[in-house]
Structure formats: structure tokens, C-alpha cells
Write a structure and sequence with these properties.
Layout lengths: L1 H17 L16 E12 L2 E8 L6 E2 L2 E2 L7 H13 L1 E5 L5 E10 L2 E17 L11 E4 L1 H7 L3 H8 L10
Parallel strand pairs: 1-7
Antiparallel strand pairs: 1-2, 1-4, 2-3, 2-8, 5-7, 6-7
Helix pairs in contact: 3-4
């Protein structure tokens, strides 16, 4: 499965590089084109027990992972780490191996949704900062993988989180 996931991420990476960015960093293909995003599954150990961090979305307050658009000049895992910093105040190390992919619909406005596919990278949290760019817009909380999986809405993300093990990630 890892080989097929890695191949899919390579296709996403090539696709992201060929897209023309809009002024606000979004990548515009056509109205219905699937967009690429990179997400961070932030984790730490409490004793021997792994915990994962979820944050709230800005629009609906549902539980999600940090994620965002490709960033010119950054690898997918570095872009995921940047999103983890901006959205949750995370400092740490992102593994270069994608855990998997999940689809969702991104709200771009009251009447506009676009399909996205998110490549998820594990980020081992070394430090949490209290001052970070989106601190007034989101909440963050630690959960066991099983509890975190219960909190997210997207089925494929739920499976990724439920099956997460630090020993199975490259930075475990």
C-alpha cells in the first residue's frame, strides 16, 4: 500500500507544480478540478501512549487536522509542517513518508465548495507555542488515536488516524 500511496503523492506533487497559483496561494485549474492539499497528523508520546492533535476548523468548528495548499519551494511534508505551525503552534519534525490520502470538500465561500485530496504526513511535536498565527481562530486538543478518529467527519481520515502508530511512521 505504501508504494501506491507514494506514487499517488508523486502525481499530486507533479500536478501541484504545474498549476498556476492564484494571488492568494490557491491553485486554480477549473471550477470542478480536485485541488491538492498537504496535512499534518501531529503526534506525541505520553509515556508510551501515542496522542494525536486535532484542531477546530475556522468556519464550522468541526475537528480536523492542520492542512493547506502547496507552498512554492517547500516539499509536501515541509508544507504540512508549516500549516501545523500556522494553525496549531506546532514545532517539530515532519516525516517525508505520506501516511495516506483523504478527500474532502473545501468551503471557499458561502456558495462555493471545491473537492480536495489531502496527503497526510506525520509530524512529531517537539514543542507547542501559545502564540501562533491562527491562535484566536482555532482550538487544539490532544486525543488518543481512537478518540480522535471518532471526532473527525471524513471516513478516510478517520481510518488513517485510527490506524496510526508512531512505530509505523518514519519519525517514530
Amino acid at each position: 500500500m505504501l508504494a501506491s500511496t507514494h506514487t499517488g503523492v508523486e502525481r499530486l506533487r507533479r500536478g501541484a507544480q504545474s498549476m498556476a497559483p492564484e494571488p492568494h496561494g490557491r491553485f486554480l485549474l477549473n471550477e470542478d478540478a480536485t485541488r491538492t492539499q498537504f496535512g499534518a497528523l501531529c503526534w506525541r508520546l505520553e509515556g508510551t501512549r501515542p496522542l494525536v492533535m486535532l484542531i477546530t476548523s475556522r468556519d464550522t468548528g468541526r475537528w480536523i487536522i492542520p492542512k493547506g495548499w502547496p507552498i512554492d519551494g517547500l516539499t509536501p511534508e515541509a508544507a504540512a509542517l508549516r500549516e501545523a505551525w500556522e494553525e496549531a503552534g506546532v514545532e517539530g519534525e515532519a516525516a517525508p513518508v505520506c501516511l495516506g490520502l483523504y478527500p474532502y470538500e473545501k468551503l471557499l465561500g458561502p456558495d462555493r465548495k471545491v473537492p480536495c485530496i489531502v496527503a497526510v504526513y506525520p509530524v512529531r511535536v517537539a514543542r507547542l507555542r501559545n502564540r501562533f498565527p491562527e491562535r484566536k481562530e482555532r482550538r487544539r486538543e490532544w486525543f488518543t488515536p481512537a478518540r480522535a478518529a471518532e471526532r473527525v467527519e471524513e471516513d478516510a481520515l478517520r481510518r488513517l488516524i485510527a490506524g496510526f502508530s508512531p512505530s509505523g511512521s518514519a519519525n517514530g
